[in-house]
Amino acid sequence: MTAAAITTTRTRAAGRWLRHVVNLPFVLPLLIVVVLAFDLPLMLAVGWSFRDGKTYDFTWGNYQDFFTSKVYATVLWRTFVVAATVTACCALLAYPLALWISRLRSRGQVIAICAVVIPFWVSILVRTYAWIVVLGNGGIVNRVLKDLALADKPVSFLYNQFGVTLGMVNVLLPFMVLPLYAAMLKVDNRLTQVAQTLGAPDRTVFWKVFFPITLPTLMASMVLVFILSLGFFITPAVLGGGKVPMIANMMDLLINRFSRWETAAAISVMLLVITLAFYALYQWLRGRTT
Predict the structure, then answer these.
(1) What's the Cα-to-Cα distance from 137 to each of 29, 124, 240, rounded to whole Å?
(2) What is the pLDDT of residues 124-165, one digit of tens each?
(3) Which distant-in-sequence residues (6+ apart) come within 8 Å of 244 by Cβ?
(4) Is 174 found in the same domain as 102?
(5) Residue 252: CB partners within 8 Å, gap ≥ 6?
(6) Do 26 and 82 lie in a common domain?
(7) At CB < 8 A and 24+ separation, what contacts does 185-188 make?
(8) Residue 10: which domain range?
(9) Does 142 fall in a domain?
(10) pLDDT single digits (tens) 258-284
(11) pLDDT digits over 96-105, tens only?
């Protein structure tokens, strides 16, 4: 490397460092808020997870309780099962819905996307309680079934795993529809036209050309929905009626009812590790879509 090239490299590095210094006062307040509101509580939770609740000494006992307790294992397994079920249901509903929206005219697409986005404007708590009005024992659906003589007694739609899954799908479905819709709009129509020109039927064009292009987005969206499902609290608490506790509900009991902060901190750390692993998978799949 010549002296001129070295000088140019040093000048660029000094310019970047100077820009960082100049911009630091603008970023510093936000950095302080992030450290105090997010990073510090997280570090405290990690510290509590290694602390004995009585002697306050360092211990691995909280993690040993987590891995050896059947109660924790059952709740963790139920959380994964519900999250996987919700993810699969969202995928089965979101893909054809996004495909249908992408095939509409411009005005129809705007109306359909508005219909998908509007639920974001309503509180999750309100949307969750609305399901009780619709599917409760005295709700609209059970009254219709009774009036049509299709059921002698109310059908238990809620306060079970079905009700929790239904409520979570309702909340998380837009998180899968919108990325799929955006990916489908980016598909070059010339690819499908070439396949049709070569004599491929519509079904073959879809499975051999269109679906493989949108598959990475589908997989990334499924991972995102799965991550969001792991930390759900309101929907399982309301629509589960305490009969379908998930890991967030169990942590609430440990903190507010049993005052076992150290055990709850250990569970939160384990959930964080699992979430970060799936987030890394999501980023890898998302990178394949670009």
Answers:
(1) 52, 21, 14
(2) 888 888 888 888 888 888 888 888 878 788 888 888 889 999
(3) 78, 82, 159, 160, 161, 163, 164, 236
(4) yes
(5) 233, 237
(6) no
(7) 185/102, 187/213, 187/214
(8) 1-49
(9) yes
(10) 878 888 888 888 888 888 888 888 777
(11) 999 999 999 8
Please say whether the beta carbons of 72 and 249 come within 8 A. Answer: no
Residue 150 lies in a domain: yes
**Residue carrying structure tokens 């009626």:** 241
- pLDDT reported for residue 81: 92
**Number of other residues whose CB lies within 10 A of the CB of residue 189:** 8
What average pLDDT score do residues 234-253 get?
85
Is the domain of 43 the same as that of 79?
A: no
Residue 56 lies in a domain: no
Q: What is the tally of structural domains in the chain?
A: 2
In a domain, 43, yes or no: yes
Residues pairing with 282 in the sheet: none
pTM strictly above 0.85: no
